[in-house]
Design brief:
- It comes from Drosophila albomicans.
- InterPro entries: Acyl-CoA_DS, FA_desaturase_dom.
- Its cofactor is Fe(2+).
- It is found in: Membrane.
- This is Acyl-CoA Delta-9 desaturase.
- It is a single chain.
- The protein has 335 residues and is mainly α.
- The protein has a domain of 209 residues.
- It is 67% helix and 1% strand.
- The chain has 16 helices and 2 strands.
- Strands 1-2 form a two-stranded antiparallel sheet.
- Helix 2 packs across helix 11, helix 3 packs across helix 4 and helix 14 crosses helix 15.
- The N and C termini lie far apart (71 Å).
Length: 335
């Protein structure tokens, strides 16, 4: 009897632990994503055969703005604090991020910070240890487990909560989403470019959503596309992207507070990096945080000599280093 009771107790513990970590599908989101992929793909054909150049150019503009809101806004500014931004720039990036239709800045920053804190662990909401499709798609279609909800509460969001622009968007997100992500891309081609409502819907909303959502989600899944690692297998290559692999994703997860990135394979030459430098040249972005090659080399030497953690040593060297005020415009001199 004693062994039977113990076995039952162990089974109950395992069952409760599984329920604690279980994630259920959000079926309205699943249905929405099905429509995005089917109707967005149809939008490619309609854009090619029936849309005016005005509609195509306007859709391209709103698509780029949505991507900018995710990559430069949510990721580099709010999630990792790689630079500071003036109120006008923060307002602009907030409006851009709303056009991405991925949820509020607050919720995305909170989830991304948990993604970094639990990278390659079961608790990561974006399945960083499973595969590209899990990180790119599945992570967006499932509710957080009770375990993840507890971990999200523990994420420090004090800096975000002190940003009035972000909190304004969080409070009025549904209204802003309807106006900027639905009505604006639908009404503009229909009202001003003489398009039919069908063309405006397929191209202006569904095709744009297909592109923005997938590019924006690369923030959480790009390490499967670009990285080089010792256990690399051909099945992990995602070679359809034809992207040069490099070590920059590992660098980002090791030291995420660098404003630079390198989706074209060469670190510091990414689109987001270029846009941040443009904003800095316009005095809209300041205090660009980066890590020079010199600081990395000195930090590695210190880590070997002192047996201290590598990240701790590099960060110490970064604090000792005095960067030129305009280093973001003079990369050759800086590096």
């Amino acid at each position: 009897m004693g062994s039977t009771s113990q076995a039952k107790a162990s089974k109950d513990i395992l069952s409760s632990e599984a329920d604690f970590k279980k994630r259920d599908a959000v079926w309205p989101l699943v249905l929405f994503y099905i429509h995005v992929y089917i109707l967005g793909t149809t939008g490619i054909y309609i854009a090619w055969t029936g849309a005016s150049w005005s509609t195509i150019l306007f859709t391209a503009l709103t698509t780029l703005l949505g991507i900018l809101g995710v990559t430069v806004g949510v990721h580099r500014l709010w999630a990792h604090r790689t630079f500071t931004a003036t109120a006008p720039l923060r307002l602009f990036l907030m409006l851009c991020q709303t056009m991405a239709g991925q949820g509020s800045i607050y919720s995305r920053v909170q989830a991304h910070r948990l993604h970094h804190a639990k990278f390659h662990q079961d608790e990561d909401p974006y399945y960083s240890k499973l595969g590209f499709l899990h990180a790119q798609l599945h992570g967006n279609l499932f509710r957080y487990s009770r375990q993840q909800e507890q971990l999200l509460i523990e994420i420090d969001m004090s800096d975000i909560e002190s940003d009035k622009i972000v909190m304004f968007q969080k409070r009025f997100y549904v209204l802003l989403y309807i106006v900027l992500n639905v009505l604006l891309p639908l009404n503009t081609p229909f009202q001003y470019f003489g398009e039919t409502f069908g063309v405006a819907m397929f191209v202006g909303f569904w095709l744009r959503s297909l592109i923005v959502l997938n590019v924006g989600d690369l923030v959480n899944s790009s390490h499967f596309v670009w990285r080089i690692q010792k256990d690399f297998k051909p099945t992990d290559s995602n070679s359809i992207f034809f992207i040069t692999k490099s070590f920059w994703p590992q660098f980002h997860y090791l030291l995420p507070n660098d404003y630079q990135s390198g989706e074209f394979g060469d670190y510091a030459k990414g689109t987001g990096t270029a846009m941040i430098r443009v904003f800095a040249a316009l005095n809209l972005a300041k205090d660009l945080r980066t890590i020079s090659s010199v600081a990395v080399r000195k930090g590695l030497v210190m880590a070997v000599e002192t047996k201290r953690p590598i990240v701790e040593c590099i960060e110490e060297q970064v604090k000792l280093e005095k960067l030129p005020e305009n280093h973001f415009l003079n990369r050759e001199k800086f590096m």
